[in-house]
Amino acid sequence: MSGHFTESDFVPLNLAILTVSDSRTEETDKSGQTLRERALDTGHQVVDKRIVPDDVYQMRAVVSAWIADSDVHVIISTGGTGITGRDSTPEALQPLFDKSIEGFGELYRAISLEEIGSSSMQSRAIAGLANGTLIFCLPGSTGACRTGWDKILKSQLDIRTRPCNFAQMFPRLLES
Asked: What region holds the MoaB/Mog domain (predicted)?
């Protein structure tokens, strides 16, 4: 999904990246590093990156702080979106959303279907908006993060993508 680009200047956004894992460390967090590198290579700023266990309250604490921080425009999480007993990212973060962005999960699974077949239905990728901050929750595999960034987020976080994108919405996200 390459999108159509205009000649306007790129506008960097401030991103925070959350890896949800009971076992990963900074040295072994390939998914979080993939997202960080891709965001930086695109021209965005990564203002924070954390790893937390698959614990609802620890996830909510970190993400709530980022939602309250006006310097964080976008939060991308990786991990905890499956169906096992410990996977709880959607349950942790969805209650924080002011609005859900259902199309993100639908689009992610449709694209993923082409890559991994019917296993894509096991992904509970979700997205939402909270206090003017966009939140995207991706599965934990490095391939899933590449798919999410390369085929959806890269263009949607680029103000030059037409006919529309998330980046151009920032001035209006908090209007009442």
From this structure: 16-160
